[in-house]
Design a protein that fits this description.
Elements (H helix, E strand, L loop, with lengths): L1 E3 L5 E3 L5 E2 L9 H13 L6 E9 L2 E8 L7 H4 L7
Antiparallel strand pairs: 1-2, 3-4, 4-5
Amino acid sequence: MQVKDLDGNIYHWKLIGGISNSYNEQKSSYHLLARQLIRDCFSTLQVLEEIPIHIRKTEILFLDFYLPQRPSSKQHVAPSVLFL
C-alpha cells in the first residue's frame, strides 16, 4: 500500500506487526480492554497490533491496532435485484 507522510514523501507501507492474541505482557489494562472490545465488535477480522508507520522521514510511530478494511465492490454495496 502506498502512503504519504507529513512531508509529502511516499512510502510502500508493509503491514507487519503482531496478530492480536492472548499476549498480555507489557500491555496496559486499557489496551487489553480495547483489544477485547475490538474482538467483540469485529470477530471475523484479523486485527494487527503495533504496526509501524512513517510520519516523517526520520520519525516512526506505532499504531496500537490496525483493522483492515474490506475492499468494497459493487456486489457488496449495491442492492440486489432479487431482493427488491
